[in-house]
Design goal:
By secondary structure, the chain is an alpha+beta fold. The protein has one domain. About 25% of the residues lie in helices and about 35% in strands.
Amino acid sequence: MKTLPLYVVVLAATIALAASPVVSNSTERYLHVRVVDTSSHELVRVNVPLSLAEKIVPAINHGQLRDGKVQLAGMPVNEVNVKAILEALKTAPEGEFVTVQEKDNDVRVAKERGKMVVHVVDKKGGQRVDVTIPWEVAQALASDTDRNQLNVEAAIKALEAAGDVTLVTVTDHDQSVRVWVDSRNAGE
């Protein structure tokens, strides 16, 4: 199975944590990650109670993750003020903001039903990425941060009341990744 760089895993987890609607619910919520590699017949499943993740994430100080926050410095979004963009998008009307259709890639960014939706298709590489980020969780990601940070700890707290939802899917020729939140203590 291909090994992803740590910053990619942290960024994917951050997006996943950001991508669930906030609904009041007292049931324990679980973050699930499932990676299937059809070429090697490998399967990885991660099922973490959000209450556990809330306690562990602030204790990790490795790489870009420090004190419950992901540092975006050094990543492609290094010179983008994520917090300012999220604040601007919060009050923007719903609609399609960006559509790029090229020979090798399609990208679509929209605000739909109170969520930021991002779809990316790499036609040449055969990869597809779908992400949905509700504004409540996105605002938690931007809370109590510097310009180039995302607050993973706050996003986890916002996810604890989340309903069942698929957060991120990534598919290519050999692998599929699914990240979701629900109340089951075991993945699919």
